[in-house]
Amino acid sequence: MYSRQQKKVQNSASQASRKNQFAAKPFIVQPKFDRETPDSQPEQEQVKPQGTWTNASMFTYRPVPKTPTVQRKLNIENSENQHEQEPEVVNQINQIPAKSLDQQNLQSKTKLLRAKSDNLLTKPAQTKNNSISISRQLNTNTIQRGIKKPGKTGEIYTKAPASFAGERFNASIKKRLQEIIDNDEKKNGKDYTLTQAVAEAKRDARAQGHFITGRIGKRVRDYQSILKYFKSRKADVTTTENKMLRIGAVIDAALNTVEVMEDDFQKVSVNGSADQFHRNFISTFTTLVPSLTPHIEGFNQVAKDMVTQGGGAASSLKGSMFETWALQNVLPGANKRVSFDQQGKMTASRISDGYDSSTKTLWDMKHYFGHDVPQDQAEDYNLIVQKGYEGKNGEPVRQVNYLFPSQEGAKKNEWLNTSYGFGIYYIDSSNNLKQHK
Amino acid sequence: MAEQILWKANTTFHDWSDGKFIHQLLDQAIDLGLLGAVTWRKIGIRGETEAIAPKHIHDLTSHLPTPLPDEPPHSYLEVGGDRPFPWVVKLSISPWDEEDNLPTSMSSIWLFFAKKSIATASHSQKLFDAFCQVHHPDNTEYACIHPYQHWLDFANQYYQPPVTIGPMFKGVFWANFLGTGHLGEFDLEKLANIANLETKWINNQGLFFKAKGNILDIENSSHEAELKQLTEIFRDAIRLDSKWR
Fold first, then answer.
1. Pairwise CB contact (< 8 Å): B46 & A9
2. N or C: which end of chain B has fewer CB within 10 A?
3. Cβ(A413)–Cβ(A402) under 8 Å?
4. How far apart are CA B34 and CA B117, in angstroms?
5. ipTM over 0.85
């Protein structure tokens, strides 16, 4: 639609000047555009720790909540979102010819991916500040790390670095990490390695109800275990194995943070083709992870881990998970997808993330902190409302609302309210749905 | 924004890119003492708020920014000031499609001004009079004035689903206008002689209506009940063949 508009619509400065007296003189000061930051880049988090972390729920078995039966909108391999960009190193990794890797190389490549992604965690400025020197050699598919004290995860920190742990953790975990390093060590006379401190901080987060923990059964810790489990059930995992070349690190990042048990996959049907099985598995996984992270801070932490480890490959997966999270936790009444044919001047057919029939409201969930909602989608939703276009099953739409994981994401996209009258919502640090004003 | 009043208008039928309507509305607001010099601006949807030397609002609204290719096609501008009290204007102006002779999207203006600016019942009446002078079927599809926080909360609680669409006519507020593109969706006979509503018709093409009382009292519970009743009358008056039925 945009190219069409550029032909027909007075949208450029030169075109507008012919008709629009506003456009006769440009602004003297050019706008400063705050370009969006890819998810894999550091993002400001406004979440605050709250509540006590002595909650005993971590010792209590909590079953996985009943999951919604919505059809997930997944496209793991090809993200349609132009904003979901991969970090440079991940791109380099993905440029390795897939055909050069046979199945035996699958695991080693993923390890390589993880190792390279690990290096992303430490930015040049931070490495300098922390007296950490990391050298990498990427051109031969190998990686060498030379880490000097202090900073190695196994080393003992006696003083917290200025930018401790970079942007790897969300605000509440970073705060707790800082407390552990700065205070607990002195109080308890206990030395922590970085690894131990991170583990304790995450335990605290779990105790706050950010994650469901203390579950019974055999925990699954990496995608290899998942493949092994399904192979034992005679599933055709060919497609899934191939897909893991791209998303294996993402799956592992989620499994590292969330307690997923082997039994959680019992209901996944292993009948049908390899492609069908893969869809079944992904559908279950994208529902399972949000159900185990009932607090938005927990969910955001998992999402951040996934992006840190998997870059752009994580975007679609975490997007689907956020939809599920929202429908499970704050928008149970919107648990319906609505499909719209391309009509009039819409640029594409559309499928909503949610729809509340009682209020005739279409919902779209975006796990964005610093991104803009794609303007073509917003324009199409605007047409659906203004023109009265109905869904394929006759669903009317009178309002469109967007949901973001934080106030930061909502503020970034408040233009959707100004330009289109869309409602802008976010999840606050107390896990409540809030309207951005 | 809790102590602010919202004056908003929208259209999907009129060309606001020539600036006439925008300046007409802003001039009325200046005459009423609702806004003074601009001291900050934000240009484009990704712009950052920047302080500027005091300027007349026309200096900014006469030169609307051109959006970048990956942005919505609207000219987008936010400006504000602190005098006489804090105020904000947000503009989103759709380009005009010569082929269809319509805007390609929706144009909107949001004016937020302080409740303190409307201190008396007399001021309140002058505000409604100005509202009636600004809007017309030739320039506006929908407009309203209402205390902003109450507008948000009341609509969320009682106007779901909206009478027509959420971006425009959610329900009856203190001052309301339905013009081209909106009034035609209603059975006009059902809107004649509505009790507890001050109305002003413009040739069956436009309808102004104001709830009883002044804007400072509109948040009282008795007025809220009236607003809800009036909204149901409008809801019932939507034509059976309306696209928003």
1. no
2. C
3. yes
4. 6
5. yes
